[in-house]
Every structure is written in C-alpha cells, then in structure tokens.
Design brief:
This protein is of the alpha+beta class and 71 residues long. The chain contains two helices and four strands.
Length: 71
C-alpha cells in the first residue's frame, strides 16, 4: 500500500536524513521525503501499514526533531 502525507521539514538535507532513517524501519518497502513539496510517501504492506507508519514517524522525529506528519 502506498500513501502520501503532508509533512513539515526544514531543508533538503534534513529531508534526506529523515528519509534514510525511515527506510531502515522494519516493514518499510519504500519511503521518500520531499522538501520542496512538503510530502512524505510511504509504501508498506497493507495489513501492517498503521504500525509501520507510526514507527516511521518516530524514526523520522529521532533523525530530525522538527519533522512533522499530518496523518
């Protein structure tokens, strides 16, 4: 399942750091954080999507405290 979310990220370097952290989360098949469009895209199995999403958001916040996602 692929979903896009509005996010808040301060710079392109921060987006790259957050994206790298999220891709390491178990269950994440694909992830991207776009600074210009302020979009976060996550691909994960449908049956575990919510748990993976929450883990991805936590990983993103650990990498960059200002990372916010509108769920």
């Amino acid at each position: 399942m692929k979903k896009k979310f509005k996010c808040e990220i301060d710079c392109a370097a921060c987006a790259a750091k957050v994206e790298e952290a999220i891709r390491k989360v178990e269950g994440v098949e694909e992830a991207s954080v776009n600074f210009l469009t302020q979009k976060f895209t996550l691909v994960a199995a449908e049956e575990h999507f919510e748990e993976v999403l929450q883990a991805a958001i936590k990983a993103g916040k650990r990498a960059e405290a200002d990372f916010e996602v509108e769920v």
